[in-house]
Amino acid sequence: MSLTRRAIGTALLVVLTGTLAAALFHRQFYDPPLKNGYYKSQGQILLADGRLIEATHLLRITGQHFHAVTRQGDTVLEHSGTISTRGGVYLLVDSGSVQQLSGTLDDDMIFGMLYGQRSGARIQLIRRGPCLYALETGQIFCPVVEAR
């Protein structure tokens, strides 16, 4: 093998390795922004004691800001804040409140509600197909398709 071929092969390997490293770095520290619009899910939640309660989750995204309302049984959580896309997608809660916290929720749901309304809370969103799963609060948000 000639010296020129070896040099070209080495240069190509260095370029490919650098490109791969840059792509991995970019993927680790940047996630594409979420699309503006509404995300929603609704259904029933099975509590630890075997009871079922109705649940609705609504998330509105406008630019780098969000507003979310969750109703689980007779409890309503409202929170808002900004969206971060560094190292994943996160909702950064600026303010929130829980209304009518009652005995109809189990401990895991109460924790999720209280954590989600706390100023400074950081909620990671994990993409699951077209939907988003809020890791810390267990909520699922799917895009609302508007009729044309």
Average of pLDDT: 77
Q: Per the principal axes of the C-alpha atoms, what is the gross shape?
A: elongated
Order of helices and strands: HEEEEEHEEE
In whole angstroms, how far apart are the ends?
Answer: 64 Å
- Uncertain runs: 20-31
Q: Could you say which structural class the secondary elements and strand pairing correspond to? A: alpha+beta
As laid out across the biggest beta sheet, the strand order is 1-2-3-4-5-6-7-8
Largest sheet, in brief, is:
8 strands, antiparallel, barrel
Number of strands: 8
Helix fraction by DSSP (H/I, runs of at least 4): 25-40%
- Rg over CA atoms, rounded to whole Å, is 22 Å
* Portion in beta strands: 35-45%
Q: Number of domains in the coordinates?
A: 2
How many helical elements? 2
Please characterize this protein's 3D structure.
By secondary structure, the protein is of the alpha+beta class. It has 2 domains: 1-30; 37-143, no CATH class. The protein contains 2 helices and 8 strands; from the N terminus they run αβββββαβββ. An 8-stranded antiparallel barrel has the order 1-2-3-4-5-6-7-8. The protein is elongated, with a radius of gyration of 22 Å.
Structure keywords:
alpha+beta; eight-stranded antiparallel β-barrel; 2 helices
Helix-strand layout with pairing:
Layout: H1 3-29, E1 37-46, E2 52-62, E3 65-72, E4 75-84, E5 89-99, H2 107-117, E6 122-128, E7 131-134, E8 139-143
